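Follow-up to my earlier ticket, as requested here are the two runs.
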Amino acid sequence: MKVTVCFGRTGIVVPCKDGQLRVRDLTQQALQRYRKAQEKVRAPLVFSGISCSVWCSLHG
């Protein structure tokens, strides 16, 4: 199973194996993957002072 966590227009896919991954761990992994993706395009990740739209989608 995998979950797509979207940060604005950017979707990050996080595998959660058998569905036993805690939400806290899932969000930490998604944020880590998002930061790595942003480093590749050299766009800084800044959360202070911005309203960030985040949503998730489950894939079975």
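Run two:
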Amino acid sequence: MLNQSSEAEEEEKEKKKRTRRREKDEEEEDEKENKKKRREQDDEDEHKEEDAMRRRRRRRRRRTGGGEKTKKQKKRRRRGRRKRKPR
């Protein structure tokens, strides 16, 4: 009798250990997947930001000529040129 009950207890302990181990493994796997997804998302966001910056720079260059960064600077330069023209 005592032997059977102790065996049953041992089996219960083993079952609990197995379930705990399985749960732990599942949690670790979930964490790995989440990390991977997060990393991919971060990379994607970074690329988007870089592309946006590139686009902005390109647009700025198209809008203005040589050394000016902004449209305002371009307008100032043009205004100065017009004034200097001899008539």
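The only thing I checked on run two: The first helix runs from residue 2 to 63. Let me know what else you need.
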